[in-house]
Every structure is written in C-alpha cells, then in structure tokens.
Amino acid sequence: MNADTVQRWLRGAAASMKENRDYLTQLDAAIGDADHGTNMDRGFTAVLEKLDASDAPTIPGRLLTAAGGTLVSTVGGASGPLWGTALRRAGRALGEQEEFEAEQLVTALQAALDGVVELGAAQEGDKTMVDALSPALRALRDSLSNGSSIADAVTAARTAGEEGMRATVPLQASKGRASYLGERSIGHQDPGATSTALILAALEQSVAAEQ
C-alpha cells in the first residue's frame, strides 16, 4: 500500500459523505444537531481540494496528516476534531515511509482510535464512533493474525464496523449532544458510528483496488 491507496481511500470517503449527507443528517436530527452530514461533506470536500492542490503531499503518512488538519479547520461540531485527530495520529504513525504493509495499517488505525478515545473520552457502549471503529480494528488485527490477506482483513474490519454501527441503536448515549436526551436516545443509530462505517467501507474499496 502507498500514497495511491490513501488517495483512493480519502476520495472514496469524500464521495460517500456527499452521497450519504442527507442520511447522516437525518440520523443526527433525531439525537443531535442535525448537522453531521453537512459537516462531514463539507470537511471531506475540503480534503479533496487539499489532495488536488499542486503542493499535495506524496507520502501516505503526510497525506493523512494533511487531511486530518483540513478536517479540524473546516468541520464544525465534534466530528471535525475527532476525525481530524484520528487521521493526524494515523499519519504520524505511518511516518515518512513511502509504502506500508498490513501491520503498519493496524498501527495507524490503533493510533487513530487512541486519539479519538483520548479527545472524546468515549469507550465502546457510549453510542459514538468508537462503537464502529473499535470492533473494526479488532477484526482487522484478528483476521491478519489468522493468516488472512490484507484485503480480506479489511473486509472483516468493515463488516465489524457495520455491526458495531447497528449495535448503537439500542444503546443510551452517554457522550456528546445525544447524551442530553437520556433514554430518548435509545432506538436511534448513532450518526458518528454510521459515518465511521462508511469511511471503513471506503478503505475496503481502496485496498481491494490494489489486488
């Protein structure tokens, strides 16, 4: 995997945020500020502009770091700082290498998750993006440990992320804007976990294109 992999991932994520903007906003209208879809679309549109700039980075880690910084500066609410931190931490974890293997991807995603947990103080079960990202990372690591190819392992991660996303429906939110609703947050799918699952799906498609 290399800079092209990261480029495809980020461009795929941007396309998915645009395509699902209204859906994400509907989810957020039920338990949040009704701006998650708009915010994520705006942020990843800015990431595309960064990728298309003449001075865009050509090293995977730097690409992720630049994308993270762009999200922090352009996205309102909690999603900008959280995903911005996640991508910047992932980028720093990859360092200056021009290519990376499956284990470096695990390290990068672990760094991303650690950054989100540190900033948001959320754990699994709190009805946040962590409920999708954490099981996805576990599935990725477990699949690779069992000898799966990177493509199959990322597919397992995407599947686990979607399962985690759906598992937020019966949860009561204990973090973020949704926590203000108390029991009324039960029965709604978390928008942050949903956009996370979409971003994981974009990663799966990018890695599959390498095969």
What integer is the average pLDDT?
93
Distance between the termini: 10 Å
Radius of gyration: 16 Å
Tell me roughly what share of residues is in helical segments: 55-70%
**Going by CATH, what is the homologous superfamily?**
DhaL domain
Architecture, CATH level 2?
Alpha Horseshoe
Q: Could you state the order of secondary-structure elements as H and E?
A: HHHHHHHHH
Q: Which class best fits the helix and strand makeup?
A: mainly alpha
Give a count of the beta strands, DSSP E runs of length 2 or more: 0
CATH topology: Serine Threonine Protein Phosphatase 5, Tetratricopeptide repeat
Broad CATH class = Mainly Alpha
Count of structural domains? 1
Give the overall shape.
globular
Biggest sheet layout: none
Distinct helical segment count:
9
Task: Provide the β-strand percentage band.
Answer: under 5%
| Quaternary organisation | single chain
Low-pLDDT windows of residues: none
Explained architecture:
With 211 residues, the protein is an all-alpha fold. The protein has a single domain, classed as DhaL domain (Serine Threonine Protein Phosphatase 5, Tetratricopeptide repeat, Alpha Horseshoe), CATH 1.25.40.340. It has helices spanning 3-19, 21-31, 36-52, 60-74, 79-94, 102-120, 130-145, 150-166, 191-208. Helix 1 (3-19) crosses helix 9. The longest helix has 19 residues, at 102-120. The chain is globular and about 45 Å long. The mean pLDDT is 93.
